[in-house]
Give the backbone structure.
Amino acid sequence: MRTAIITGASSGLGREYALQLAANFPEVEQVWLIARRKPLLDELGKQLSVPYVSIPLDLTSSGDLELLSRRLEDEKPEVTVLVNSAGCGYLSNVADTDPALLSRMTDLNIRAMTLVTRAALPYMPQGGHIVNVSSIASFCPNARMTVYSSTKAYVSSFSLGLREELRERKISVTAVCSGPMDTEFLDIGGITGNSKMFKTLPYCDPKKVAAGSYRAAKNDRAFHTPRTFFKLYRFLSKIIPETVMVKLAKT
Ligand SMILES: NC(=O)c1ccc[n+]([C@@H]2O[C@H](COP(=O)([O-])OP(=O)(O)OC[C@H]3O[C@@H](n4cnc5c(N)ncnc54)[C@H](OP(=O)(O)O)[C@@H]3O)[C@@H](O)[C@H]2O)c1
């Protein structure tokens, strides 16, 4: 059965990916919605025109990642779309951050994104699409969000390398580099009210980010960076030395 898998579907950008799935990929016959909060997945699923399966998983847990792998092995769905949107980021200097939160960022943003992709790949057909949610934080290290920005640099780098590996299989891989979005991410990460940078930057609309991501995936684009402002930031971060950029890009 032609299947889409969306992680982080219970809120924010992941929820938007689910809501816009059918309009962009009408061939998809079912969607697997993944996050920890099952009631929110069910509430979302009921709004979709495509049949859904809620799969409550904590993607930082090895056991839960194993459950997903096993379910894929058992059901062998044809994974035509994979969206890795689950992610978290905490604002604080490394030395002041609870080690558990540092682990959560690397476990979710790096390890889970990598292993969910690895688990889905055997079931992805030619013409499939992978959308990995990175961030403008991937462009250069952001002090006070050092671990978060490092994890997103990994997401972008991983996506670009994987894209090359999957060229012959004709599977597209797109890294989405959004600027700030007004989602739960900001409160959970202790960012709301604590960062001048986040107050100053223009915000991205998750609806537009999801629409742009799907457009980019269908056009086989390596990156989707919403808004001219952030496209310019990406360009500058490539031509200005990192040691200079890091001083300008403090959160
Ligand atoms: N908001 C921004 O400013 C911004 C900017 C650039 C990039 N991004 C990236 O955009 C992506 C989506 O974030 P968002 O803004 O939509 O934030 P969000 O509303 O907080 O969504 C995060 C999603 O990840 C899920 N999640 C968190 N921990 C999880 C875990 N351990 N296991 C499984 N799922 C988990 C959450 O669901 P549960 O809590 O139900 O598990 C939720 O569905 C992230 O990768 C983030 O890094 C965000």
In short: The pocket of NAP is lined by residues 8-14, 35-37, 40, 57-60, 85-89, 108, 133, 135, 178, 180-181, 183-186, 188 (CB under 6 Å). The first strand starts at residue 2 and ends at 7.
